[in-house]
Amino acid sequence: MKPLLATLFQKGVVTLFAYGQTGSGKTFTISDVTKRAVMELYTMGKKDCQFYMSFFEIYGGKVSDLLNGKKKLVIQEDAQSRIRVSGLEERIALNDEEMLGIIDFGHSERTTHSTAANDTSSRSHAICQIKVRDA
Predict the structure, then answer these.
(1) Rounded distance, CA 72 to CA 74, Å?
(2) Separation CA 73–CA 59 (nearest Å)
(3) Number of domains present in the structure of the chain
(4) For the whole model, what pTM was predicted?
(5) 66-82 burial string, b = 16+ CB within 10 Å, else e?
(6) How far apart are alpha carbons 129 and 131 in whole angstroms?
(7) 26-44 and 96-108 helices, crossing angle to 10°
(8) For residue 82, what is the domain's CATH number?
(9) 26, 46, 58, 81: least buried by Cβ within 10 Å?
């Protein structure tokens, strides 16, 4: 992940995606990679940039804002054929601890259910977005 992070500071997009069967270690792996990436972002970041975060889930055909009380959202395509999530709340993260706190909060808001493999298994697809902006 580390070599890809520089792309964010050049107005690029980086995607981290985990796929696999239940119990294969996706959550553990993503959690560790996320923590390392967040710390690296603040090391790489310049004093004139800020990090804005949003976090939403897709579950049962519905889209919900995990940072805003699970407010229902709408995914739309704009005139330039870009996908937009209308009404999505953004929060600024001033340091790595704040960013990890926002991520932990978003995960705590996810829809979970008990399964044969786990007592609390996430049942949704979650998307955490981090945007780099000039201060």
Answers:
(1) 7
(2) 12
(3) 1
(4) 0.85
(5) bbbebeebeeeeeeeee
(6) 6
(7) 150
(8) 3.40.850.10
(9) 81
* Contact status, residue 86 vs residue 73, Cβ threshold 8 Å: yes
CB atoms closer than 10 angstroms to residue 97 = 12
Q: What are phi and psi of 102, to 5 degrees?
A: -65, -40
Rounded Cα gap, residues 75 and 58, in angstroms: 10
First to last CA, the chain: 25
Q: How far apart are CA 5 and CA 81, in angstroms?
A: 25
Please give the residue range of the domain that contains residue 91: 2-134
**Please, what is the average pLDDT of the chain?**
88
More confident site: 113 or 96: 96
Q: Judge contact between 18 and 28, C-beta under 8 A.
A: no
